[in-house]
């Protein structure tokens, strides 16, 4: 066999191999889409029940002066230049 014939056969083998892989991938995508449509038709997705958001707990009327001081110090330290 000369180089030209060998190159032509290798090119044909490459095209056949790529065609088989491409065909298999197309078949796989088609099967997956078909299965997805079938699943959605047989068992549609259920919407979760609406859960009411919990109401914010009211703050106690007698807030501690220490708590306010700690929060103020934390805010001041956070805002301080680094």
UniProtKB/TrEMBL annotation:
<protein>
    <recommendedName>
        <fullName>Probable oxaloacetate decarboxylase gamma chain</fullName>
        <ecNumber>7.2.4.2</ecNumber>
    </recommendedName>
</protein>
<keyword id="KW-1003">Cell membrane</keyword>
<dbReference type="Pfam" id="PF04277">
    <property type="entry name" value="OAD_gamma"/>
</dbReference>
<dbReference type="InterPro" id="IPR023424">
    <property type="entry name" value="OadG"/>
</dbReference>
<dbReference type="InterPro" id="IPR005899">
    <property type="entry name" value="Na_pump_deCOase"/>
</dbReference>
<keyword id="KW-0812">Transmembrane</keyword>
<keyword id="KW-0406">Ion transport</keyword>
<dbReference type="GO" id="GO:0015081">
    <property type="term" value="F:sodium ion transmembrane transporter activity"/>
</dbReference>
<dbReference type="GO" id="GO:0008948">
    <property type="term" value="F:oxaloacetate decarboxylase activity"/>
</dbReference>
<keyword id="KW-0813">Transport</keyword>
<keyword id="KW-0915">Sodium</keyword>
<dbReference type="GO" id="GO:0005886">
    <property type="term" value="C:plasma membrane"/>
</dbReference>
<comment type="function">
    <text>Catalyzes the decarboxylation of oxaloacetate coupled to Na(+) translocation.</text>
</comment>
<keyword id="KW-0472">Membrane</keyword>
<dbReference type="GO" id="GO:0036376">
    <property type="term" value="P:sodium ion export across plasma membrane"/>
</dbReference>
<comment type="similarity">
    <text>Belongs to the OadG family.</text>
</comment>
<comment type="subunit">
    <text>Heterotrimer of an alpha, a beta and a gamma subunit.</text>
</comment>
<dbReference type="GO" id="GO:0015451">
    <property type="term" value="F:decarboxylation-driven active transmembrane transporter activity"/>
</dbReference>
<keyword id="KW-0739">Sodium transport</keyword>
<keyword id="KW-1278">Translocase</keyword>
<keyword id="KW-1133">Transmembrane helix</keyword>
<feature type="transmembrane region" description="Helical">
    <location>
        <begin position="12"/>
        <end position="32"/>
    </location>
</feature>
């Amino acid at each position: 066999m000369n180089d030209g014939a060998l190159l032509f056969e290798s090119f044909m083998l490459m095209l056949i191999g790529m065609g088989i892989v491409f065909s298999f991938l197309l078949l796989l995508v088609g099967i997956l889409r078909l299965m997805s449509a079938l699943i959605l038709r047989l068992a549609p997705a259920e919407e979760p029940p609406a859960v009411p958001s919990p109401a914010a707990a009211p703050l106690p009327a007698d807030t501690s002066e220490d708590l306010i001081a700690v929060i103020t110090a934390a805010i001041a330290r956070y805002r301080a230049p680094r």
